[in-house]
Amino acid sequence: MIRVEDLQKTFQTERGEVRAVQDVNFEVPEGELCILLGPSGCGKTTTLKMVNRLIPRTSGKIYINERDTDEYDIVELRRHIGYVIQQIGLFPNMTVEENICVVPKMLGWSKKQQHERAADLVNMVALDQSVLSRYPKELSGGQQQRVGLCRGLAGDPPVLLMDEPFGAIDPINREIIQDEFLKMQADLKKTILFVSHDIDEAVKMGDKIAIFRDGKLVQFGTPDNLLAHPVNDFVADFVGGDRELKRMRLIKISEALKREVPTVSATDTLDTAAKKVEQAGANHIVVLDDDGRPEGVLTQGDLDSKGSCGDSAHPLRTTVQSIKDLRTAVSRMFTYNTDWLAVVDDDGKFVGEISYRSITEMLHASRKRGEKKGAA
Amino acid sequence: MALPATGRVGRIAFYGGLFALGALAQGSGLLPEIAYYWPDIEYLGREHLFLVGVSAGLAIGVGVPLGVFLTRPFMRGTAESVMQVVNLGQTIPTLAVLALSMSVLGIGVVPAIFALWVYSLLPIVRNTYAGILNVPPAIHEAARGMGMTNNQILWRIELPNALYVMIAGIRTAVVINIGTAPLAFLIGGGGLGQLIFTGIDLFNTGMMLAGAIPTALMAVVVDFLLGLIAFYFIPRGVNPLR
Questions:
Q1: Among A306, A343, A344, B45, which one is most buried in terms of CB atoms within 10 A?
Q2: Which residues of A touch B131 (CB under 8 A)?
């Protein structure tokens, strides 16, 4: 857990006092990833560096696991906080293994423990064991940042500080590393402060987002809350005019899908199908095979003739998995020019349907809920 | 593995040139003349090496710590002015340094070593200073952020990363030192300068070359040896040669 109380930072410059950080208060619960977000010069990096005391604070307190960071010896404190920076800063004179083991070595681990730790970590970030004996200059940028990540995690610190760790990586590799990192975080459950200026990255990675402006914390909350209810025009502008589209990334299809939809099996007659369609007031019906997988679809025009559903059904052009987010669903609707999709679970079994209407209703309803919560 | 600064072409040119010089020397009857001075060469060469060894050793012993000292945070304000003073030392002509040294310390080995020491100091201090300051700030920040002490940062990060530049400075200093050491003869410091200057005064080309050629060879060989040290001693990650 990280708790920041009344944090202040004032720099003395030639043009007088600059208040880089003013009255910042927030708390990141154990195991959560909090993004410090904002334009450059907003105080987010300064705030981060005050946690491991790379920048001394003017006033205020920072607690890690309920212990005041001032009580720690400064070197001891830093050895128990992982630190990953945008420029990576791998030590060129050391091999990858030596780089990773810098903190374990200082913590007095045995040679064997150090080696095992390095091997494990490299494995975790999907790098080959052979990189261990290489030097940083022999690695690509993406590989270097993965090693940087390993180095930050090497001492198994409860808290991790990351200063735009993926900022210098090309967009394709960045997506991959973000995904890998999220997977790792799901297991590791570190408490993380993560500086970013990229709203998409923040929405994707953060459990919480803290938006900064001119040294002040403007809004602190979950990504969905921020997107649905920006507190002022600055936040609204910063999260972007397409913020509802960004919210769709946060909501799983399983949360928005309609489960009570009529279905028929391939062996049912078209009469049965027609009755079900009429009852539900729908304009189509999904045909399932014996295992409950969607096999095809019948539209109203098909229902006038006689015979079994299986024979008259049109094949389904696409389905979508319920664990995907709403953005994927909408993107697929655009691709196939349809206003609804059959949703399947991990095994390919039909679980319901999702449509434009259900998505817009879902977004609207959750926004209303948030407003009520905000008012209370 | 290719050795530093010895491409195949360079090597062939070197040996070819050496052979041509040898042939020329033998043809003009200079070689026997030079060989005549062999006992002098041996004795004075040892003196020469002593002058160089002591003055360069002291210059390294003082220059490296001084260079490091100038990079420490509390020196940030004054370091540049100190560097200016050290730079000034290099702009004074060698002979003037020798003369100044003699006027204070008299004649003999000690003033000669002192003058050579002053002259070797600058490249070592400057390169140590620049090498450490050129360690990228990101590396510094990472090291501090991971909880390294200032001592650990110096020994494990700054010095290894500055090593290549530092050794380059030491090479320059030692080679200049060997080439300057003959002047020591002028203030009674001995060394191969004795053969060179006496040879010049007597219009005795053989005698002069008996001093000049070993001096030049000494510079080449020592530079090569220092190159070897740099090649094998500097970690691969920060060694541009491999």
A1: A343
A2: none
pLDDT tens digits along A132-146: 999 999 999 889 999
Instruction: Give tens-digit pLDDT for A296-325.
Output: 888 888 887 778 888 888 888 889 998 888
CA distances from A110 to A115, B147, B149 (A): 9, 19, 20
Residues A248, A250, A251, CA angle at the centre, nearest 5°? 70
- C-beta atoms of B146 and A83 within 8 A: yes
Based on the fold, state whether residues A217 and A190 are members of the same structural domain.
Answer: yes
User: In b/e form, how buried is each residue of A251-274, taking b as 16+ CB within 10 angstroms?
Assistant: bebbebbeeebbbbbeebebebbb
Q: Do A78 and B147 touch (CB under 8 A)?
A: yes
Q: Do B142 and A85 touch (CB under 8 A)?
A: yes
Residue type, A92: P
Write the CATH number for A144: 3.40.50.300
What is the ipTM score, two decimals? 0.79
Q: How many domains does chain B have?
A: 1
Asked if A85's CB is within 8 angstroms of B141's CB, the reply is yes
Backbone φ and ψ for A82, nearest 5 degrees, come out as -70, 145
- List A285's β-bridge partners, or say none: A298
- B26-35 contacts, C-beta under 8 A, 24 or more apart: B30/B205, B30/B206, B30/B209, B33/B205, B33/B206, B33/B207, B33/B210, B34/B206, B34/B209, B34/B210, B34/B213
CATH number at residue B143: 1.10.3720.10
The amino acid that residue A104 corresponds to is P
Dist CA A193 CA A203 (whole Å): 14
* Strand, helix or coil for residue A341: strand
**Nearest-angstrom CA–CA distance, B162 and B167:** 9
Mutate to test the interface with A, among B134, B139, B146, B238 (most CBs of A within 10 A): B146
Query: Residue A267 belongs to what domain range?
Result: 254-361
The label of the residue with tokens 């990141």 reads A28
Q: Point out the residue among A78, A87, A88 whose CB comes nearest to the CB of B146.
A: A78
The pLDDT score that the predictor gives to residue A108 is 94
Return the structure tokens found at B211.
Answer: 């001093």
B138 touches chain A (CB under 8 A): yes
Could you tell me where the beta strands, DSSP code E, fall in A103-206?
A: 159-163, 191-196
